[in-house]
Amino acid sequence: xxxxxxxxxxxxxxxxxxxxxxxxxxxxxxxxxxxxxxxxxxxxxxxxxxxxxxxxxxxxxxxxxxxxxxxxxxxxxxxxxxxxxxxxxxxxxxxxxxxxxxxxxxxxxxxxxxxxxxxxxxxxxxxxxxxxxxxxxxxxxxxxxxxxxxxxxxxxxxxxxxxxxxxxxxxxxxxx
Length: 176
Description:
Strand content: 5-15%
CATH architecture: 3-Layer(aba) Sandwich
Number of helices: 8
CATH topology: Rossmann fold
Strand order of the largest sheet: 2-3-1-4-5
C-alpha cells in the first residue's frame, strides 16, 4: 500500500493530538486538520453541546460519518478521543496513512484535562476519565501503527522525536 502522506493522531483527550499535531504538521510541511472542529462545523455546535442535546451515540455517528468522508493527503489529522470506537473510520484513516497513538499515563491525563469545561471535551458523568482510559487503551494499542509516549511537556525536542519515529516507520513501510 502506498503512503498518502497522512499522519493520523489518536489518543485520549489531553494526549497532545491538537497541540503536537499543529507543530508536527509545521515541522513536516503538511496541512493540519482537527476532526473535532469538523464535527462542530458540521453540527454548528461545540462537542459538549452535541453530547448534551443529542447524546454520545449521536456524536459517535456524526464522528464516524465525518471521518469516513475525509479525503485528504499530506495532512496531520488530529482525531477526537472517541474516534477509535469506529473500526471502519480507523481502517479508512489507516488506508495509506500512518496512525500514531499519543500515549499518556493516567496521572498525566487527569492533570491535563482538569479544566474540562474549557476543552470542548465530551465529558459524561457516568464515564469518569479513569474508566474511559481503561476502556480505550486496548483500542488505541490495537489500531496504532506507531506509539509515541507523550507524558512530558511539549518542546521542540518532543516534536523532533515524534518526527524521527514517524520517519523510521515510514522508511520500513515504504521499503516493505
